[in-house]
Structure formats: C-alpha cells, structure tokens
C-alpha cells in the first residue's frame, strides 16, 4: 500500500514527487469519454487528475441521492487508478467551477434567510446529512486504504467570500468524522488578504493557490505566507488557469499555447500544478453558472470548452502539444505518448415532424399549482429551468398598467397569447400598457420566467435574486393581482412524454418541436442552432443545454452516447417565436462573432 505525505516536499512512499495534474470533471462528460480523457492526461506527462464533486447533482432533491451514470464518482476514480493516475478530490460543498450556484443545491433556498457557507446551524445540518452519504463512498478510495486519492479539499476560494474560520473548522471536522484521513487542503488566490481569510494554516491544513500566470511571483507570495506561519510546505497551484470560461454575447476567450507553455514551465520549476481545465466538457441541462458584475448577472454558456488542452469534445489542441513539450523540458523522465484523437460526425439534417404551443399543451404536461400569490421556482418545483405563471385578469375595456415585481432572471409576458415584452434584470418591473379584447370579460396573462443560472462566485451567493421565478407578484393598475396557476417546466422525461403535439400549433408562442429520425450510424456531433432563437434541445430524453442566438456559441455538443442506432427523438423548446423547420448536425462547433 502506498503512502502520501506533505512535508517540505510531497512524498510518495517517502520519496519526493512533483505533482503534475489536470482537471477533468466527470460530471461534464459521459462515462464513455472518461477513459480517453484520462489517458490523454497521462500521455501529456501528468501523474494526477483532479475533480470537483458538485453537491447539487448528487442530492438534486433534499434527501434523494444520485451516483449513477456520469455522476458515478467512484467509477471515475477507479478508472483513473487503472490508468495510473493519482487523484485529488474536491468534495467541498461549494465549488464555484462556473457551475450552477457553485454546486450548492437550489433546495437550500427553501430555507428562508439561511446563511450559506457559514456556521448557520441550518446550513451545517444540511452539510452533515450530505457528507454522511458522500464521504463513506470516498473513504475506500483514499491512498490510505489502497486507493489513488492523495488529497481532499475542505473549502474552495473561501477567502474570496468569507473569513469565518469556525465554518472551515466545522467542515474539516465533519470530513474527518466520516473517515477522511488523507491530507486536507484549501485553495485561494495568491494574495495576502484571501490567504489570510480563507486558509486553515494554523490547523495544519495545506495551502494551495489559484492563478494562471506570473508563476514565480505568486509562488513567492505563497511561500512568504507559509513561512510567516512556520510552514515549509511545497508550492502548488491548484488551479493553473490555461484558458477561461465564456458568457453569452461576449467574444470567445483564447490563450496562446506558447505563452501558456512558458508559464507552465516556470511553475514547474518552482512547484507543482493542476491545469484548470485539462478537459472542460459541457454544462449539460440547466447547470451552467453565472457571473456577477456589479448589479448585473451574466450567465455563462452551455459549452465548457474553456480553451483547454482538450476541446469540449475531447480532441487534443495545439495547446496540448505546447504544454507536453514544456513538461518534458522540466521533467525529462516523465512518460509521455501520442494522445488519442476524436472523430466528429456530420449526421445530416432532418425535418421537424410536429410542433405545439406551450400554452396549448401545458395542462397535459404539468399539473398546475393554484395559489393566491405567485410561488418562486424553489417553492413550486426543483428550482431549475422555467416557470410559467398563468392568470386571468379582469378586462376593464380600456388600457391598464401591468408590471412584474421582483423576478429572476428572464421574463416573457404574453397577453391573450401575444408576446408583449421580454424583461431581463435592468428592465424587470418596468410598467407595460395592456388592453383586452372587446368581446371578452377577462384578459389571459401568461408569464414565462427562465432561470438563466445562479451565480457561482462572489458576494451574490446570499442575494435574494438567487431565488428564481416571481418573488414579489404581478400588479394590474396599482394593486397586486391574486389567483395564479403555476407550471414548473423542468423538461423532465415525464413532462416531455406528456406533450400533446395535436393540441395546437402557434410558432409565435413558446413552442415544442419534435423531430423523429432514423440513424444507421452514430458518432460525436454538434447540433447547429444558428437559425434558432433561444431555448433548449433534448435528445432521447437527455437535456443537452441551452442555445441562444446572441452567441458566441451557435451549436450544442451531442456525444454519441446520447444517440442510438435506429429511431431517435429530438425535442426543441424554442421561446423566441422562431419557427423551427429542421435539425441539422455538424462535425464541428459553430460560432457567431461577438465584439465587445
């Protein structure tokens, strides 16, 4: 059985070792992709793989746990060991990772006033319950028990959020109580304030940094911080940023491969590193995160390509070879090999077979919840996707004022089935003028609210805006309207199977489009969304994620594991009134040029 220790060096079986690691998130790709990705990391010259563990995918409903398929962390770690890689796990309840709510589950928000990432007893009780299920699964994977896991994270970039050491200590104690005995660490930016606030160095918890350049300068900051606390630990960058994430309506961010290689070389000369990301993957479903910039929330795209060493689909990039050569220059004895390549496929185009308006089929899909005042998405459902609020307003037979109070994130308002306005952040709550039809006593109101993704980093984690849907109400004239039907639209398999495509077609309204197609051969592919507006694509019951015509991404990645030989079903939920005529597959991703 091997041993791993942190003294003045990292020691594997008592011998110094430099950790050369890469981040691969098991939950951002299919299990069939894991092996190629892990092999290519090993072929790069790495000896370790690192991954976060997102709380919200493993406990999607409070008390209900899921570790199957792409959520099978134990299978991923076991495969890494078979390929010859050590493993660093980050099971902290907050992960950032450009992931929905930084990995925190939406159901936490049902607890009014809960203080996240703190010693709030309600929050710590939820962590205890989650860890009581998660940690026992990880214990046998530790190097102390013959597994490949050498380190685990207590909290992630806590110094960029808080300074409550008691919270960090209670989290550490829970991990140890449930059986973690490998070295623990924290990771923070490499400057004094965040290291001081976010570490547990006084409790002998190893300190790592997160940065992507100025390697030697950042190493000096970290070394000085450790020495002031009497530590002579090795230097490690836990997130060496080799690319960056992307947001809607912003240009794709790229990093030059030779520039990265020079910085990687400099980092390896002074310590160890974990390349973030080695293979980014995809934010399938509704799990994309959101940035906070001042008052604005800026949702991130479905693709998590990250301009990493492997593309979203897993193809080695030029950057891969630049970094591979840099590793060899500093560590000439590492094993390296040619990486495995990826073949992408154009599967052709297929016509839409049927379509129906959401408003026409809503009662077939979802049992409406009737209340006097609107419920938030967390109160009425699981907190993800969309919420449709329907109401009948009194027709006063002259123009009336209407406004939606306190809603997140994107609000589309329909009067008698006709689109009246789309409001988003800066304009939610603006007053509209409405009027009903002359022959009707009531006005039909439908409000579709989309959760674009909760913030994953910074001061807004505890903001009321992280509760999605309508929190305040809807006002007609100057009074709050009472009486709503609410439809949580999560695009679950059960909901999709209940769509009645014969209920009524109305392309100008939010609509479902069904494509049935026969495939003789399957392969990794992209669905071309460049002629669509905004919405979601579901392939054989699996939600590929969001598309949006504002760019920069104009396609969605579809791994071959989501397809099958024979009959396939593609369902597109389009919200912008663009009639969809066909599904087009492409052998490459499609982008729209966006300028700042």
TrEMBL record:
Family listed: Belongs to the glycosyl hydrolase 35 family.
Name by which UniProt lists this protein: Beta-galactosidase
Keyword terms of this UniProt record: Glycosidase, Hydrolase
EC number, as in UniProt: 3.2.1.23
Top-level taxon of the source organism: Bacteria
Annotated source species: Enterococcus silesiacus
InterPro entries attached to this UniProt entry: B-gal_1-like (IPR026283), BetaGal1-like_ABD1 (IPR048912), BetaGal_gal-bd (IPR048913), Galactose-bd-like_sf (IPR008979), GH (IPR017853), Gly_Hdrlase_35_cat (IPR031330), Glyco_hydro_35_CS (IPR019801), Glycoside_Hdrlase_35 (IPR001944)
Keyword Hydrolase included in the entry's annotation: yes
Pfam families registered for this protein in UniProt: BetaGal_ABD_1, BetaGal_gal-bd, Glyco_hydro_35
């Amino acid at each position: 059985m091997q041993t791993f220790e942190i003294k003045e060096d990292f020691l594997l079986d008592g011998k110094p070792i430099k950790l050369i690691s890469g981040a691969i998130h098991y939950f951002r790709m299919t299990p069939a992709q894991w092996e190629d990705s892990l092999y290519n990391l090993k072929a790069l010259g790495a000896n370790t793989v690192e991954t976060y563990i997102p709380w919200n995918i493993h406990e999607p409903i409070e008390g209900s746990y899921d570790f199957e398929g792409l959520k099978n962390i134990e299978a991923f770690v076991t495969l890494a060991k078979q390929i010859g890689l050590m493993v660093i796990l980050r099971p902290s309840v907050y992960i950032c990772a450009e992931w929905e709510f930084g990995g925190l589950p939406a159901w936490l928000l049902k607890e009014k006033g809960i203080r996240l990432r703190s010693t709030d007893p309600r929050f710590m009780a939820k962590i205890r319950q989650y860890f009581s299920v998660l940690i026992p699964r990880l214990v046998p994977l530790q190097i102390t028990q013959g597994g490949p896991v050498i380190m685990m994270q207590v909290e992630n970039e806590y110094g960029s959020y808080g300074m409550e050491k008691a919270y960090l200590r209670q989290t550490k104690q829970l991990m140890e109580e449930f059986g973690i005995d490998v070295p623990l660490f924290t990771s923070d930016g490499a400057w004094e304030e965040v290291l001081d606030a976010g570490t547990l160095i006084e409790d002998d918890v190893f300190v790592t940094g997160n940065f992507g350049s100025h390697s030697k300068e950042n190493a000096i900051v970290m070394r000085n911080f450790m020495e002031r606390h009497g530590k002579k630990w090795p230097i490690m960058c836990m997130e060496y940023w080799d690319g960056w994430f992307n947001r809607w309506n912003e240009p794709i961010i790229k990093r030059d491969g030779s520039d990265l290689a020079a910085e990687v070389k400099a980092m390896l000369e002074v310590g160890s590193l974990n390349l973030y990301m080695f293979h980014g993957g995809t934010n399938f479903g509704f799990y994309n995160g959101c940035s906070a910039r001042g008052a604005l929330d800026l949702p991130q795209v479905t693709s998590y390509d990250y301009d990493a060493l492997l593309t979203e689909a897993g193809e080695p990039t030029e950057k891969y070879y630049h970094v591979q050569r840099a590793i060899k220059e500093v560590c000439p004895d590492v094993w390296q090999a040619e990486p495995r390549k990826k073949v992408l496929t154009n599967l052709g185009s297929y016509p839409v077979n049927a379509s129906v308006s959401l408003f026409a089929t809503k009662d077939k899909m979802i049992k409406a919840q009737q209340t006097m005042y609107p419920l938030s998405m967390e109160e009425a459902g699981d907190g993800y996707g969309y919420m449709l609020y329907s109401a009948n307003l009194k027709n006063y037979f002259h123009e009336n004022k209407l406004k939606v109070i306190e809603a997140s994130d994107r609000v589309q308002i329909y009067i008698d089935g006709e689109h009246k306005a789309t409001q988003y952040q800066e304009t939610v709550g603006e007053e509209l003028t409405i009027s009903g039809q002359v022959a009707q006593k009531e006005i039909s109101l439908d409000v579709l609210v989309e959760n674009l993704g909760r913030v994953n980093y910074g001061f807004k984690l505890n903001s009321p805006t992280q509760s999605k849907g309508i929190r305040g109400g809807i006002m007609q004239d100057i009074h709050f309207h009472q009486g709503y039907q609410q439809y949580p639209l999560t695009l679950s398999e059960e909901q999709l199977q209940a769509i009645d495509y014969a209920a009524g077609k109305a392309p100008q309204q939010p609509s479902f489009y069904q494509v049935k197609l026969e495939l003789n051969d399957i392969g990794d592919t992209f669905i071309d969304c460049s002629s669509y507006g905004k919405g979601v694509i579901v392939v054989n019951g699996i939600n590929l994620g969001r598309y949006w015509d504002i760019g920069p991404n104009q396609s969605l990645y579809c791994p071959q594991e989501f397809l099958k030989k024979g009959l396939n079903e593609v369902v597109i939920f389009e919200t912008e009134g663009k009639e969809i005529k066909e599904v087009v597959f492409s052998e490459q991703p499609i982008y729209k040029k966006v300028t700042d």
